[in-house]
Write a structure and sequence with these properties.
This protein is mainly alpha-helical. It is built from four helices and no strands. The protein has one domain.
């Protein structure tokens, strides 16, 4: 990720038996959601089983773009 190679949500949701990436990045995803939508948004997303448009009003592509920008500003600048 330091080199700008951010995984997509689809990649993170791949078979957990073949990739451990979601476990490695889960905290940072939760931190981003909480920073942007608050604890309530985080809970809504969990209750909606990851349905971004339904829980947060944002598409997966918009989420990925915002998440990568947040990572750069929070951890890499």
């Amino acid at each position: 990720m330091v080199r700008g190679a951010y995984p997509t949500l689809q990649q993170l949701n791949a078979d957990v038996n073949s990739s451990q990436q979601i476990y490695q990045l889960g905290y940072v995803l939760g931190e981003f959601v909480t920073a942007r939508w608050g604890q309530e948004g985080f809970v809504r997303l969990i209750q909606a089983n990851g349905d971004l448009p339904g829980a947060l009003g944002i598409s997966p592509t918009e989420f990925e773009t915002a998440w990568s920008a947040w990572i750069r500003s929070r951890y890499l600048s």
